[in-house]
């Protein structure tokens, strides 16, 4: 076993996990407080990436592009909430799923119309394009370290926001009893819209951060949304802590599965069989994990107390 | 002679139209509409199967497309090995074997995923069925033997006794009769004691449990029946398109199936057929009009969810009920 590779892959898994958390936290926040299933969350992740990519090419500066694209994505989330999502809260989960499925088609075709069918590649600024040697042989692109740092900072900020601020107090109160909060004179509609916009901003941020590594492309939203759902199912829908831990587990399993599973399989099957089986099993690994978790704990690992 | 209700008449007229119109169009030199009708009928079978658990059982399965894919690959994989060698155990062109495989595999998959999924309820159930569907999608996508993402072409259709699936008319008739059988089966199930328990559990699960019914078991049986029917639709679809790919199992396909059921009217016998018809015709009409047909389609989907109640079947309900 190559321990340097193992270390580097763990960091890669951590980075993927943190990006997943950024997407999943918005989903779980919106579900926790609004009881609303939002399939279109992945589309907002994609649109955030496209807005940032366009701005980067236009301004020539990735960081400024992120700074401007964040509120724009938040505004988009706000608009989506006002125009469509709000009207769905009263209905059942089946209607949420179908309505937001329609929203996906609208948003993705909209992005297709605006940005065309091809993806946008974003160059990194020179000072982020290098590599860092953490210790002997363990070389990591510095941009990936930045993603990890940003992800941890946002997760910490979110934790602080939800647990130690007035807005967070209202969010928690709204999640446990929205009628009561509303009766106490809080404008619950605006609170909901803000929560929705916050979730959209975090999903958008994840999309922006991943773009320089991959590209901004039309299919990216559909890919991440399912993984994000797996994360919040494993963690317990509505639980922030659960989403964080499950996101890291899923991120690390996905990264490790791709790089180490074939070696592991070679212990007990032929090299040929391992080469066929490993990709198949690693593609299914997180779903198998989800099935195992749900078989023992149908409410996920950390079910929220009030529900 | 039993007197037909209004719904009964609508069903009779709709099914008669579906039976007569496509062959007429075929004979008047419009084979394209025959194709469209076959696709419609096969998708309608899948929608009918989903309706059994979604409409009557209240179990929102978001992974039903996986069954279609499994049924289609049950045709494609044996045919592939019969042509190119390898995997002697399944290599065959025999349609009855394909059929048995499609039904067996979908039933087994439904039993395993259902046993786990049905432990959850509500939004968990929606998401876990969706995730299981994606699991099947990614499994077939990662199988390089069967071209992964690019899919398989079926060179030789299933060989069945008495029926030649290469003839579009015979394929249509088989699909049509299957659809009629599926509708009758669902009607019989729904009106049986089993169906009553299933619908009772949809209305109030705790009450049924308190009355002494093991609703988990009832639901699991319904889930397996539904999945197997959908696998059968996949068997037909594989033979119809002669091209199969993991894309058939993608979660957006499952979403489209759900849309058909809701658009037509959930928990009605004819609803899924109306929904599938509307879906296939709309898709055909809109995509011939613009490549960006998903945009009006998505807006319509949102509109249906926000402003309609009871789907297309709701239109046929009398006033003042």
What attributes characterize this protein structure?
heterodimer, A: 307 residues, mainly alpha, two-stranded antiparallel ribbon, B: 321 residues, two-stranded antiparallel sheet, 13 helices, globular
Topology summary:
The complex is a heterodimer of chains A (307) and B (321).
Chain A: H1 3-34, H2 41-59, H3 62-88, H4 93-115, E1 131-135, E2 138-141, H5 142-164, H6 166-176, H7 178-183, H8 188-210, H9 220-235, H10 240-265, H11 271-296
Antiparallel strand pairs in A: 1-2
Chain B: H1 6-27, H2 31-56, H3 65-84, H4 95-117, H5 122-142, E1 152-153, H6 168-191, H7 193-203, H8 205-210, H9 215-241, E2 243-244, H10 251-264, H11 271-289, H12 294-307, H13 311-316
Antiparallel strand pairs in B: 1-2
Task: Please tell me about this protein's structure.
The complex is a heterodimer of chains A (307) and B (321). Chain A is mostly helical and 307 residues long. In chain A, 76% of the residues lie in helices and 3% in strands. Chain A contains eleven helices and two strands; from the N terminus they run ααααββααααααα. Chain A has a two-stranded antiparallel ribbon. Chain B is built from 13 helices and two strands; from the N terminus they run αααααβααααβαααα. Chain B has a two-stranded antiparallel ribbon. In chain B, α2 (31-56) packs across α11. Chain B starts with 5 loop residues before the first helix and ends in a 5-residue tail after the last helix. Classes of the chains: A mainly alpha (307), B mainly alpha (321). The interface between A and B is large, with 45 and 44 residues.
